């Protein structure tokens, strides 16, 4: 009986040691992963994510709050396009393909704001 208690105590201590080491490993791993990008790069990533989220939210508004509207506007493609008219046409065509129910005025306002947002990148 006493040997069993001693054995259990040893096992508990071994598990606690393992958990402590694993926790330290996870902390170190998380620290390394979060330090992958510099401050400037992280600022740019956050800015880009903010614009992508804004575009998604505004497109949902154009579809009367429907998030499952089938429109996927790729910011990389937009940034690669050379001119503002090409960017507007790309987004407008995506909206039309998904039969956007919004008025032309709302779509035009969205396109104007989107171009302004993209120019900040």
UniProtKB/TrEMBL annotation:
PANTHER family noted in UniProt: GEO07393P1, PROTEIN PHOSPHATASE 1 INHIBITOR POTENTIATED BY PROTEIN KINASE C
Family assignment from sequence similarity: Belongs to the PP1 inhibitor family.
Superkingdom in the source lineage: Eukaryota
Protein name: Uncharacterized protein
Claim: Plastid is one of the keywords in the record: no
Family annotation (Gene3D superfamilies): CPI-17
Database matches in SUPFAM superfamilies: Myosin phosphatase inhibitor 17kDa protein, CPI-17
InterPro entries, alphabetized: CPI-17, CPI-17_sf
């Amino acid at each position: 009986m006493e040997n069993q208690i001693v054995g259990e105590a040893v096992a508990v201590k071994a598990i606690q040691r393992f958990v402590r080491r694993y926790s330290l490993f996870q902390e170190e791993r998380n620290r390394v992963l979060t330090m992958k990008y510099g401050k400037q790069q992280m600022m740019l990533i956050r800015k880009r994510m903010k614009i992508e989220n804004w575009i998604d939210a505004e497109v949902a508004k154009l579809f009367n709050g429907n998030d499952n509207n089938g429109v996927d506007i790729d910011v990389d493609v937009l940034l690669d396009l050379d001119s503002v008219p090409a960017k507007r046409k790309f987004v407008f065509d995506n909206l039309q393909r998904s039969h956007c129910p919004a008025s032309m005025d709302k779509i035009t306002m969205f396109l104007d704001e989107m171009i302004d947002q993209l120019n900040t990148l």
